[in-house]
Amino acid sequence: MPARWTALVALGLAAGAVSACERTDVGDPVAADVAVPATSTPSTRAIPTPQTELTEPGIVSTTRTPVPAGEVTCEPPNPPPVGVTATVADPAAPKITVALPEGWSTSAGEGDIGAKLQGQDGVWATVTIVRTQLDPAEAFEKYVNDAMAESEVSSVSVLPAELCGYSGQKLLGTRSDSRENAVEFADRIAHIWTNTNNYLVAVHVEGPADTPGFEPMTSPLMADFAVVLP
Predict the structure, then answer these.
(1) pLDDT tens digit string along 36-87?
(2) Which residues form the signal peptide (predicted)?
(3) CB-side exposure of 34: number of CA atoms within 13 Å?
């Protein structure tokens, strides 16, 4: 956000006493103090009050060149051994293929959830595909704010994570309503244009904070994922 300048206006009013001659009918002229009002002249001084510009990481220019239907616009250099393709009912939405971690199961989602994945020890993941009217920075900021609002105590770290020319971020966070209910989570989010609409894609993995060996940011689900346009 550019620095804003606040103008402070001070109005100065000066009155000067000057010596003048007052004419009388009899006698010599005598000096008299006559108050002569001075013209009020406003004095304006601009004082800069800069505000720090918070630039969202991972933002790149959105390319809006028409792409043929069925085009693979992002394909990881090292595709996972087993992948899960997430789709939603919206015919204009992209199809997203993520890695299926070893030993995990998967099931179909509903609504904006394109796929559900279930791990061990209470660890789980989802892939959501949501149409958005927001630009990448606004969409990412809203996503983070919504994530933090889910619990009274929460923290989120944000890292840039562009994806095949799409704006993207990685999030690492914790939240809890109590120590017993503390969870750790990670998200891989991307802002994808599909010829007609913008979509916010989010791969979310979450588990209890005390789960042995659970490091959400190192999950295969945080790797680059494949994108196919409708």
Answers:
(1) 344 433 332 222 323 333 478 999 988 888 889 999 999 998 899 999 999 9
(2) 1-20
(3) 9
* Residue 189 and residue 152 in one domain: yes
Same domain, yes or no: 89 and 132: yes
pLDDT at 177: 79
* Sign of the Cα pseudo-torsion (179, 185, 145, 161, in order): positive
Same domain, 153 and 45: no
Domain count, the chain: 2
Instruction: Identify the domain containing residue 23 by its residue range.
Output: 4-49
The answer to whether the pTM exceeds 0.85 is no
For residue 209, what is the domain's CATH number? 3.40.1000.10
Among 4-18, 106-120, 176-190, name the one with the lowest average pLDDT.
4-18
Asked whether residue 66 is domain-assigned, the answer is no
* Region of residue 196 (left: phi > 0; alpha: psi -120 to 50; beta: else): alpha
| 184 Cβ neighbours under 8 A, 6+ residues apart | 172, 173, 174, 206, 207, 208, 209, 211, 214, 216
Q: How far apart are CA 12 and CA 39, in angstroms?
A: 9
Q: pLDDT of 125-146, one tens digit each?
A: 999 999 999 999 999 999 999 9
Domain identity same for 108 and 199: yes
Q: Write out the two tokens for 74.
A: 């992002």
